[in-house]
Every structure is written in structure tokens, then in C-alpha cells.
Amino acid sequence: MRFLDLWRWVGVCLLLALVWQVQAWRYGAQLERQAAGHALALSQQSQAAFAQQQADKHKRLALEQQLSANDQHHAQELSDAQRNQAALRDRLATADVRLSVLLDATDTASCAALPTSATPGGVVHAATRARLDPAHAQRIIRITDDGDNALIALRACQAYVQAVAR
Fold it and tell me: What is the domain partition of the chain in residue ranges?
């Protein structure tokens, strides 16, 4: 009987070793499936992150191009305004153009009025006008130049903020 007990004991040990090995194989296969699932999930996440990065890059490039176009437009607008202002200053300096103001017709103490007769290229409003001193006219033009430049700069800033806020 001892011999049979020994064989039984060896058989049980072999059976336990076989069961242990099968469990190890099953556990290893389960770990491999989990690892493959995690690798697939990581791959999908990295692809989604890359796609998002590309979309952000395209948005940034489009915004940069739009801002560059806006900068060029506003620079051109500023240049045109400065050119027009310089031309007006030159015309005032050469007496091609004279600035005048309307006088209150009821005020008898006002200074000598300009004639209201029609001049070539002029419009008569049938009101008494007084010519401004050229130095005062130049100061007025400088003030309006500064105001025009400020408005152009303000529009450029507003366009920049609107473009960035989108």
C-alpha cells in the first residue's frame, strides 16, 4: 500500500502542478489582453491629442495670418491718413485752402467777414464767414491729425482683441 500511496501522492502533486501551470497560462493570457487593451487606449489617446494639437496649430496659424492682414490694413490706413493730412497741411501752407468759420449773423461786434460770393470750386452758404489765421489752422489740423491717428490705432486694437477673442 505504501507504493500506491506514493504514486497517489506523486499523481496529486503532478495534478496540482498541472493545474497551477494552466492557471499561470490563463493569468498570463489575461495580462496580455489587458496590456493590449491599454496599449490600444493609449494609442487612441495619443492620436486624439495629436489631432487636437494639429487643429490648434491650424487655428493659431490662421489667427496669425488674420492678424498680419489686419496689421497691414491698419498700417496702410494710417499711411493714407498721414499722406492726406500732409497734403492738407501743404495746401494750407500754400494758401490753396483756407480754413474759415461761420460767424453769428446777429453778432455785430464780430471781426471783418469774408465775402460770401461764389468762388470756383466753392459753395456759398449765404452766411458770413471769417478766415482763420494760418498758424491757428495748422494747429487745428495737427489736433485733427492726432485724433485721426488715435482712431486708427483704436480700430487696430479693437480688431486685434476681436480676432484673439474668437
Answer: 2-165
